[in-house]
Amino acid sequence: MQCPFPSARSESVNLTKKMRNNLIAYLLLTPWLAGFVIMYLIPMGISIYYSCTDFNLLNVPQFIGLSNYNRIFLQDDTFYQALKVTFTYVLILVPFRLAFALGVAMLLNKKYRGIGIYRTCYYIPSIIGGSIAVSVVWKQIFGNQGVIMSILSAMGIEQKTSLLGNPNTALLVIILMGIWQFGSSMLIFLSALKQIPLSLYESADVDGARSVIKFLKITIPMLTPTIFFNLILQIINGFRVFTESYVITNGGPLDSTLSYVLYLYRRAFTYFDMGYSCALAWVLVAIIAMFTIVLFKTQKNWVFYESEEES
Amino acid sequence: MNLKKVTALFMASLMSFSLAGCGGSKEALSEDDQKTQTNEATVQEAETENTNTSTAEGEPVTIKITWWGGQSRHDYTQKLLNKYTELNPNVTFEALPSGWDGYFDKLSTQAASGAMPDIVQMDYLYISTFAKNNSIADMQEFVDNGTIDLANVDSNLADSGKIDGKLAGLVLSSSLLTVGINNSVFAEAGIDKPTSDWTWSDFLKICKEINNKTGKYGFSAIMADDTNNFNYYVRQHGQTLFSEDNKSLGYFDDAIYVDFVNMIKELIDAKATPNPDEYDAIKALGYEAMPVATGDGAMVTDWSNYACRLEEVNKNISLVTPPKGESEAANGLWLKPGMFFSVSETSKVKEEAAKFINWFINSEEANEIILAERGTPVSSEIRDYLTNSGKLSDKQKEMFEYVNNAGALCGEAPAPDPVGISEINESFNKTVYSVLYGQATVEDAAKTFRESANEILARNN
């Protein structure tokens, strides 16, 4: 009552308080923001520029407009081969990896003695899977004179070439290695499984539902946000496959395992074709963005959010 | 939008950002290079001054040096570096040895980020690419001011390191294409070793015979890792692999390609040569464990230092010149600069590096350690010294002799390989393999190779 404009005054206090809050937030974000701008945003901007030049790592780049992109789409057969390999890789890998991850997560979502040890064991391939050493081991297993070939020939099945030496099967070995690294998706599934309210299962039990029904009607719908999240994450990761095809087969035989990023790397650092390589990178960004947008568009049809239901 | 949706969207966009950023961050580094390059002149001046003063005071200098090779080369090179440090206590080395596989991938990455080692062992295959990219320094000034003495080096050979008028590499050795022979495999098969007048048809016959009698590989490589063997074959037909202006292939007759690949295929079909799959496994074994070295193969093409390189694992290796053409139009062989030392443009210790290279080329004590493992030394005085010193083993004497004898069979040396050679090698390898895997006819492969090589050459030169 003493203040003539109580509402106005409290508003201005609120405003400054809000501003101060924002300031603190930005301040706390600075380390990340600085890193993001310096390490990602600026290099990305530069790489857009380079993608329109004939930059070969050490010359002075000459601006050549969109002719790199022109060359990619109209003249470069290897680009289409790399694209084909990468699409095949992603389309086979992602469903299998997610299914596998979910299956193992369900197995590990039980109360056994020493369950923590099992969880750790199943996560290990994801930690070490991307490493050079494991790739070398896979090469030894599936390559010429490797374990698989020795077993096959001991069983009397003479193979002309090893799985990795055959252009038709080499990619499958690489995919298999990818599926084996299901740990990070499994971990996300595991934590999501733990958040499904037990009361849902209990009432289903009361109604006498079998476990298949429980899985299809409770577990899967409740998991859709997690499945959606994992799907996007794994698709993006899948498009970025490099180490396996670089170390195990180096793209061979006959480019049958030439992943997109390996081709991009070769263009940049083996053929000194950095401008072109930047253009390739941006084409890949566009492809991944497209996949992500389409998936986001479809999510209202199949992804179930608890909060929506309530509102 | 609820929180979960927002988080998912955010995470997804973050992931795709990190993808583009991954490609981008490399460029950021190279942009720094760009700046270095534009300021090149001033920086270089400053650097020369720096090194001048630092050497005068004998200030400690560290030289980073990298090379490719097998274990024995790594061992004695380390010994060599220690020796140099002993003689010049202010100089220490940071050695970065590597195998051939991946050596140039790594080097180009380092060049792009401005972190190329000071002294770099360089191959004829890549020297023009690196020189034209301005990542290696012009060493002419150090020759002119006497830091590096090339008086005893054949001038044609010394000039092979000159690219576009600048001395991009100091040649360390000369070598020749060679067929390395495992004597014991020949003895086991009861076949006489070939002599330098053998032809390609003798070669095929011997390969198959060895496989029939011993079950081992007659010839243990697929001659499509690079274009060196093919280059030799083309030259025998009186043509050149690349045109004079390096803008297209130099040979006009695709039958040359067809015959060459058919020969490879014939050997593989006869199991006298490993198939691509087996060959892949062989290549991963490392130099000292390949079939000819271990006695699982009779012959392989390599360079004239082959027997010396393998001396520690197998003393029973001898050399013969590669097969002649049936109706040889020209000498296919040429004296190839074996390898070079180049100094990186970004190096801050160019003068110290030059001093070391001079020591490497001209000093007797260095060459007593090297013992021609990197190929026949370029300095005629060192060659005489080594021959008379009695320190050479039989293998090394044999190599000196081989180079002397084969000299008579040499034609004019071709120009350094054009820019884009690694892409051309890749394309050659791919087209040959497409035939070996039965996915293309040899005639189609010849056409594909011509088209893609011409496109690559036109784009790069």
Automatic annotation (TrEMBL), chain A:
PROSITE patterns in alphabetical order: ABC_TM1
Write out the similarity annotation.
Belongs to the binding-protein-dependent transport system permease family.
Q: What is this protein called?
A: Carbohydrate ABC transporter membrane protein 1 (CUT1 family)
Q: Which Pfam families match?
A: BPD_transp_1
| Topology with respect to the bilayer | Multi-pass membrane protein
Q: What CDD domains is this protein classified in?
A: TM_PBP2
List locations, semicolon-separated.
Answer: Cell membrane
Automatic annotation (TrEMBL), chain B:
Q: Return the InterPro entries for the record.
A: Bact_solute-bd_prot1, SBP
**Signal peptide coordinates:** 1-20
What CDD domains would the database entry show? PBP2_TMBP_like
- Keyword hit for Signal: yes
Question: What Gene3D superfamilies does its record include?
Answer: Periplasmic binding protein-like II
Q: Where is this region: Disordered?
A: 26-58
The protein's UniProt keywords, in alphabetical order, are: Signal
Does the UniProt entry include the keyword Signal?
yes
Q: Name one Pfam family in it.
A: SBP_bac_1
For this entry, the protein name equals Carbohydrate ABC transporter substrate-binding protein (CUT1 family)
Give the originating organism: Lachnotalea glycerini
Q: What is the lineage of its organism?
A: Bacteria, Bacillati, Bacillota, Clostridia, Lachnospirales
